[in-house]
Amino acid sequence: MKRHTSPVRVTCALIIEEGGVLVTQRSRQMPHPMKWEFPGGKVKEEEKPEVGIRREIREELGIEVSVGKQLPTVRHNYGSEALELIPFICQHLEGVIELTEHHSFRWVPFEELDELDWLEADVEVAQMLKLHMDGAT
């Protein structure tokens, strides 16, 4: 009998600054190496996603963010693992970015988002972000 497992809940931060958004590139040691993604990570059991995203950004980038609007959750199946990706519009409050896990980071203008080699689940988030920003202007 096949055991049904719940999707892994993962948050991502859409940190917007001056016409662009922060993106991170996965290291060669991570699953899906060298793919671009929005920074974030797994939500701990009993943790609210808003708390999880602030914790993950602090751990991965060494900065503090404020958490704003939540965009629709993206569901994606990587074969061995299903996930629910919960994106939040965030603002960089303080700190200088210091990568602890990723290979690199970039501030990418919204019109260049389609040019990156994205991690699959983040493709839909990038499209939602572009639509959100078009509606916000």
Describe the protein's topology:
Layout: E1 8-17, E2 20-25, E3 36-37, E4 40-42, H1 49-61, E5 64-70, E6 74-77, E7 82-94, E8 104-109, H2 120-136
What does this structure look like?
The chain has 137 residues and is α+β, with helices and mostly antiparallel strands. Strands 1, 2, 3, 4, 5, 6, 7 and 8 form an eight-stranded mixed β-sheet that branches. The protein is globular, with a radius of gyration of 14 Å. It has one domain: Nucleoside Triphosphate Pyrophosphohydrolase (Alpha-Beta Complex), CATH 3.90.79. It has helices at 49-61, 120-136; strands at residues 8-17, 20-25, 36-37, 40-42, 64-70, 74-77, 82-94, 104-109. The mean pLDDT is 92. The chain has two helices and eight strands.
Quaternary class: single chain
- How would you describe the shape? globular
- Secondary-structure-derived class: alpha+beta
Write the H/E string, N to C.
EEEEHEEEEH
Uncertain residue ranges: none
Using only CA atoms, what is the Rg?
Answer: 14 Å
In short:
The protein has 137 residues and is an alpha+beta fold.
Q: What key attributes describe this structure?
A:
137 residues; Nucleoside Triphosphate Pyrophosphohydrolase; single chain; eight-stranded mixed sheet; alpha+beta
